[in-house]
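Progress against Task 2.4 (sequence-to-structure conversion) is shown through the following example record, which the project officer requested during the mid-term review.
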Amino acid sequence: MVRISAYSVATVLALLMTTATLPPLLADQSDRAVINAPISLLTAPIAGEMTEIAPGIGQRLAPGETVARIHNARIDRTTLITLDGKVSELRGSLLAARQKRESDEAYVAALDAEIKRQVEQTVAKLEGEVTEARARVGVANAEGQSTKAVVDRQQSMVDRNAASIDLVRPTQYKLEAARFDKDAESAKLAQKSAELAAVRKNVFVGNQSNSLAVLTQKRRDLAFDAQRLAIEETQLTSSLKTQTALLDAERKRLDSLTDAQLRATNGGVVLSLGAAQGRHVNPGDSVATLVDCEQAFAVGIFSYRQAQDLAVGTPVTISSAGSSEPQPGRVSEILPKTSDKTDQQYAVPFPQTERREMYVLVSLDRAEGDASTDRPRPQARTSPCSVGQWVTITRENGWIPSASVAWKAVASGFTGPEAQAGWTAVSTNVREVAVTMSHGIRRVAAWISPVSDADAARDEGHDGRRAETLR
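Structure tokens generated for the chain above:
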């Protein structure tokens, strides 16, 4: 009796050591797996009060749909007021400069018309004076010629001693006077001609052109002032354009700081809400977390020794406690380890690995239409697309179960959901192996001792009934 007890204890210890050592290294199944999905974190871009937020967790949002609205009524508008004052001042200065320039240009145009009119009058007057001066020169020349003839006649008489020399002297004085009158009239003619030429060239000298000289100088001053105002207007226009651009940019900045909308860029399902309606938030505060259920996957932990058998593309099945049928999937990626930064990109952290273990990421095979209906999920759904649900991943055609699944099956009497999830793949594989071995034995027996066709048909029927019995 003692020996039987010792053997029983040794058998149990050996079984425990075997199940604790071999399955983790060679098991084709892992119940240390969880449903996960990438997330996008929506944070508040501005400070303010939440005026609108998504109804609740689990709501599916379309791409571009509004998740929340934030309004900030307490915004500093000092810069906007300062820029608005500068813009108003520049607009006033620009308007005044433009009006002054237009006034100067109109005054210059009026002066041009007046100068033109006076120049025409002065030219006509000078032309008359020049004509008169020429006539006077001609009269003086004629008087000089007449006086010279008298002097010559009297001098001839004196030379013939027909008259006294005293008779010639008055006539000679008169001749000299006539010459002086001619020179004076010639000088006046030259002066008038010069004035006429100067006026035609818009050069105003002399007493008669004094008013024209004043008008011309005034016109020149106004033209210079108009040019200065045109330059000032150009500078003010450039400054106004710059200040207006700054004012528009400041208004847009204040608008962006006053009201903000948070949108689901790629859509998704609301996983969690970090703020409620009416609450004040600061820039960077978490408002909502969206999970992309279309990219949900299962991540499980396997031994390094299974890396070759679980290569990318390997078909697997995913089962859970609340699912009657396993979900098919394929290995999409193998990771030796992760980091906290990687975990922040997903809805739940990856399970903790031990020494010489790796992560196997499995993509879920979705049917045509609504992919979310075929995913393993518990009966009472507590999170979008079953994120965070623990599942069991089994390699297709695998026959070594996980130790924990096996012990759960024993504890539940091979009838609970753990047993069904753990032994479904194993029973299927065992059935296929049995049928394959039966066909192999029959072929060997037929090769050793040939049988008739009737016996072969009877054996085929017997194998069929045996396979049905195994099922």
